[in-house]
Amino acid sequence: MRVLFFGTPRFAIPSLEAVARAHHVVAVVTQPDRLSGRGLRPSPPPVAARARQLGLPVLQPERLRDVREQLQGACPDVGVVVAYGRVLPRWLVSLPRLGCVNVHPSLLPRYRGASPIQAAIRNGDATTGVTVLRVSEELDAGDVLAQQEVEISPEDTAGSLEAKLAEVGAYLLVEVLEALEQGRVQPRPQDSTQATYCGKLSKQDGLIRWDWPAEVVERHVRAMDPWPVAYTAHGDRTLRIWRVRKTEGSGQPGQVLRLTPQGFVVATAKGAVEVLEVQPPSGRRMTAAEYARGYRLQPGDRLG
Question: Which residue of 114, 187, 262, 303 shows the fewest CB atoms closer than 10 Å?
Fold first, then answer.
């Protein structure tokens, strides 16, 4: 089939590769290059870079209407949306003869919205999954075409879970496209009364509140890895927290209880966590033990 592909981040790359192997991708539509790094140089989105490696035509419009004629002239059979980052206008959703489908990393209707992977980890879910659904006017509310459950391990970060879901999503997407082509899809409406929502994350969402229980702090740190990264304050500096584990201890929330060979232990509202890996401002990632020595962290210090 002739496929229009819409996607931007790394999560979309396995789906792009799978579709390109099975079908004819007439265009890859992704976000414009953005300034990044210390030199603020233009950097292409991951999907744009991979699409060019695959020899696929790439469009990076600021506004979709700017490429309307090109997309209409591509005569697509189906549109595929994988974390594109924008809502498709009605004219575009109805352009392909078989409509548009979306790959979403949750078991809809749970976790509609922009941060379903982080929400699943932070809420302590044992499983999550991938849904392939029809694109509709309401966000993530279209009919379900296929779903597959994925286990969340106790060590999963948002980054590691995203990688697993991306592979599952690519496999499921190819199956759905084949079913669409053969006219054997069986759409299932979502029960919107069971819908939950999770918004787009900002850097401020990484803040650790030490008046949370230890298990919530531990899940929060994993959910914020690799972005926006969990953080707290130590004195007048912001300290990124990359890795912690639950441990024994009690005290005032945010109080450093003791130093350990691996790092240091901080009290929470219920229990404590051992901080294992951190990153000071403008510094590298390091063990929490290195940080404690270099920045003279002592029992009794307060974080947050």
Answer: 187
